[in-house]
């Protein structure tokens, strides 16, 4: 109990004032937890505020168009979270009459809701005594109890889940879960934690064994693939553009982009321009091709590194289905393309 009591005491003195902590409304808590997956609070908070302003209830989110949802999500990454969020909102609104499942096991049945999110909603909204297990919790538990099991292995998750459940304050599950996650975010940080000021330093086994910076143990490395994307900005005589929606599975599903020439290896500007000249564009021939960056933009995703370049391809005639800048700025784009559009076209059109 000393461990849980110390964490709760620390939390009550140091917690951040965040909007989803001032409510037990499962809609707000669900929304915040989905947004904060693999996202820092400082980055996620503005998105949460925008979403709750645009969609104050689960019914509002359910009735929204997917493009509106993706546009508000633009820049937050991992866009499958937004698509699953929208799908689940429609299920809760239209199939469950707006009432969220109230138990951990029932919450797990929702699309996009895994073990951690289900535990968070169940404990924060419904006070169910189920422990959360996220990156912060792994770190705190592994250091405090000196657990050296490899967290990249599936069996280790079971070990940590059991440990988290053992130390959970069953009478105050919501408070304890918030406390241990906040402690990991602010005090027991990934790099260079301030152990001297830590209220648990006298009983932390990791600190006593001088292993704090080596815990948690994670040996499996994510394999990173390289992709070379050459975006062709087809600009017609009316200064309109061709954009297309990405279809099928993969990165940026249902977001918009310019037509793209993907190559297996990096090509020189001359080689790319030669390939573009051989391509068919609505039976129209370009009158000019301009490289808009001398170097490629490196955009890092969890499993991929994208080397991105932009080439403006100009035409003397009007292209079919082209869109004005006013039209395309309302569409959801991957943030790297959105930033390029803003930097190169926002002030010139």
From TrEMBL:
The keyword 4Fe-4S applies. PANTHER family: ADENINE DNA GLYCOSYLASE (PTHR42944:SF1). Keywords: 4Fe-4S, DNA damage, DNA repair, Glycosidase, Hydrolase, Iron, Iron-sulfur, Metal-binding. Its EC number is 3.2.2.31. GO terms for biological process: base-excision repair; mismatch repair. Residues 35-186 form the HhH-GPD domain. NCBIfam families: mutY. Binds 1 [4Fe-4S] cluster. This is Adenine DNA glycosylase. It catalyses: Hydrolyzes free adenine bases from 7,8-dihydro-8-oxoguanine:adenine mismatched double-stranded DNA, leaving an apurinic site. SMART domains: ENDO3c. GO terms for molecular function: 4 iron, 4 sulfur cluster binding; 8-oxo-7,8-dihydroguanine DNA N-glycosylase activity; adenine/guanine mispair binding; metal ion binding; oxidized purine DNA binding; purine-specific mismatch base pair DNA N-glycosylase activity. Belongs to the Nth/MutY family. It comes from Flavobacterium cucumis. Adenine glycosylase active on G-A mispairs. MutY also corrects error-prone DNA synthesis past GO lesions which are due to the oxidatively damaged form of guanine: 7,8-dihydro-8-oxoguanine (8-oxo-dGTP). Its cofactor is [4Fe-4S] cluster.
């Amino acid at each position: 109990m000393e461990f849980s009591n110390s964490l709760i005491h620390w939390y009550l003195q140091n917690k951040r004032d965040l909007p989803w902590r001032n409510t037990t409304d499962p809609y707000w808590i669900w929304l915040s937890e989905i947004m904060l997956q693999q996202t820092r609070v400082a980055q996620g908070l503005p998105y949460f505020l925008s979403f709750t302003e645009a969609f104050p209830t689960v019914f509002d989110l359910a009735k929204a168009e997917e493009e509106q949802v993706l546009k508000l999500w633009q820049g937050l990454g991992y866009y499958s979270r937004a698509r699953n969020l929208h799908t689940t909102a429609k299920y809760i609104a239209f199939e469950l009459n707006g009432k969220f499942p109230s138990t951990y096991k029932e919450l797990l049945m929702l699309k996009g809701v895994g073990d951690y999110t289900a535990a968070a909603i169940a404990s924060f909204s419904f006070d169910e005594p189920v422990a959360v297990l996220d990156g912060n919790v792994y770190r705190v538990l592994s250091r405090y109890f000196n657990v050296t099991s490899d967290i990249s292995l599936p069996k280790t998750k079971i070990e940590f889940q059991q440990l988290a459940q053992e130390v959970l304050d069953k009478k105050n599950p919501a408070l304890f879960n918030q406390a241990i996650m906040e402690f990991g975010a602010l005090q027991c940080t990934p790099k260079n934690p301030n152990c001297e000021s830590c209220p648990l330093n006298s009983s932390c086994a990791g600190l006593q064994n001088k292993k704090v910076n080596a815990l948690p143990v994670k040996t499996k490395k994510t394999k990173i693939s390289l992709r070379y994307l050459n975006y062709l900005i087809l600009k017609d005589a009316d200064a309109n553009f061709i954009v297309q929606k990405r279809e099928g599975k993969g990165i940026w599903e249902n977001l918009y982009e310019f037509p793209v020439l993907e190559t297996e290896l990096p090509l020189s500007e001359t080689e790319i321009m030669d390939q573009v000249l051989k391509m068919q564009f609505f039976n129209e021939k370009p009158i000019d091709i301009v490289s808009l960056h001398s170097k490629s933009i490196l955009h890092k995703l969890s499993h991929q590194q994208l080397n991105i370049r932009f080439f403006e391809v100009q035409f003397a005639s009007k292209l079919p289905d082209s869109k004005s800048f006013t039209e395309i700025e309302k569409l959801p784009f991957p943030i790297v393309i959105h930033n390029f559009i803003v930097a190169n076209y926002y002030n010139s059109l």
